[in-house]
Sequence to fold (732 residues):
Amino acid sequence: MNRRNLLKIAIISLLFYSGKVNSKCNFNSSNYIDQLSLPNQIKEIKIDIPESKKFAKNSIRILVDTRENIRKRFKKKFNAKILVNYEFGECIYEAKVWQLGDWKDHISWNKTYPITSLNVKLTEGNILNAVKFKLLIPKTRYGLNEILGALILKNLNIISPETFETYVNINGNQSLMIFQEDSRKELLERNKRREGPIYEGDESIVWGNKKNSINFEYGTLALARLINREWFLKGSSSQEIVLNSFDDLQYSYLNAHQNKGRDNIILPNYKYNKLFEDYYFLLAAMNGPHGLTLHNRKFYFNIIENKFEPIYYDGNLLINRKININDKKFFYINAFSKGYYFTDADKIKSKEFKSKLLKEYKQRIKNEDKSKKIFFNDAYLNLLNNIDYLNKYLSNIDFNDHKSRDQVMREIFKKRIKSKNINQKIIKSYDLKNNEVNIVLETGEFNTLNLYEFSKVISGKKINKIRYLFLPKDRKTLKENYKFKEIYSKDLEGYIVMDPNINFELDKKNKKITIKQNSSNAWIMFKGTKINDWDITFLGNDNKDNLESNKQRFNKYGITGCLSFYETIFNNSSIKALNGKCEDNLNIINSKGSIKFINVINSSQDALDIDFSNIKVKNIEIKNAGNDCLDLSGGRYIFDSIEFSNCGDKGISVGEKSNLYGNNINISKSKIGLSVKDLSYFESNHLNISESNICIEAKLKKQEFGGGKVKLKEPICDDNQIIIDQSSSIEI
Fold:
């Protein structure tokens, strides 16, 4: 019997993967990879709450309550079954649901039954890669405005949640609602960002006091909090990144509160403020002042670029309405620096932008009728007019610079807190050491918290009914917290960022770049560069004595690679990397283009890791990797020739919605030759895997994805195992 027939038998036998499998669907997710990313493929979301009487009773209590807001005690969690009805099948998941919203516009009567906005957390499975999301009564977000606004921002590379219309049936009662994902790592990955700290304005002081249900006066005393504290707990690198970035954001909040003429203006970066200026401009142009209120703001700290980015949330947009520049509550003129101009105006006006926007809008609405077409055209035209008006207006005004007063600012803030008799303790200093945090309070009191307790403090949670508050230290610059060299290269049309222990040589005449490590931990990143016809060689330091232990994949700068390329365009270049002791010997992120040759030899961990990129490579040779030889995620990749040997774990790992097309692939001596998972697709006309424990596996690994799909022609597998789970498929 030939090898191909043996492979067929192995596949038919279905040696099921023992890991977490999404068996709650009546279809194979690997056969619907594209469809599972499209909102219009969802016909209906059904929510069955077994304790239906208690749920209904809770809703009625909210409606008859005398207060305008929804009290916290009404936001009880209920077990639920979620049935997602797609055009091609259905899935049933276990979930938790609870009342959403601060105000009673999130609950109302629909004929004979109450309709309510809901928070939903799936304990298994996902809906369009989201595991936690909101189902909103449309009027709470001005309906189609929210969908279109989120799309506009997304297409301008501003982090925005997946948002669309869908029919929702709650215990037999159907209504049209808005689906919107929460601010979690899935949101970041969807927007092609690496996982990192997510912050928001801490509104607990506004809603959480005992004497009053609401006190917006306290809003001027609200600072920031960390949303994803589980990320903080991952390790020392995460902790250092969070504490440094959190201090910066707290400072910005404090500054905003103290400058009366600059209320609600948050510019947390020491540079890159143009990004936030553009965000203020766009929300102004879309009539979204609600999303600029301090306690409504959300932020992502980009660990690779060491900068904050805004996350769109709760804008209450009115895109189809002409802006009123005289409304001081809506337009924050002090957000802009002198000479500011919104440079993306021409991009938004282009036919390409409008066409793409319309296509995505149609995919996110139900019952495409005349009124929804009219709304799109009117809103788009009005947005263009608002942009032109604002650009002209900003070019003819005088700007006032607001300078912060570090120590005075903190003292004023503390006095205001004391005057309000708010029960909270201010942390003067802290020392994080050996999984414990020693804190000193402003009163001189000393206390010790474990890391879990400390993460709750950063997240605005109480410890033993006590609220703790961080005030920022004296003003620091990122250069003090993050020590590295950053130079601009005219030859590469971008920046080179590097550890001080890197020797960098650029031979312009021969178009050769040579990089040498003086320490095994030293790193270098090409950022926003154009690598045209260059030969790049990285020579790692083979001295293991210099290697620092780090339990996390990335260091305190968010870097995983010894040699990294970020937002780089490649053309006809070659890369050689030797003896890398980092998590990734070579890492390519958010990049595109073509590379003629990649050679990676002697990697202590992963040899080559490519994320969120669109890359074509003619030839790849990798030898001696401690972990994976090639790890791909979130992109599209075409490789003409692959020669891998001695891969400590996987020869090729294709994950997180990636597509890999390979022509001639030869892999020898690995634990797993090929692993395709998490809604990824692999196709090859020649695959030869030898001396591997497992030849091929196709599986679901992460809850927010589905299975993997493999399509092969004439594979050679040395008669070893083929592993397929119930969500995946292999086609020959």
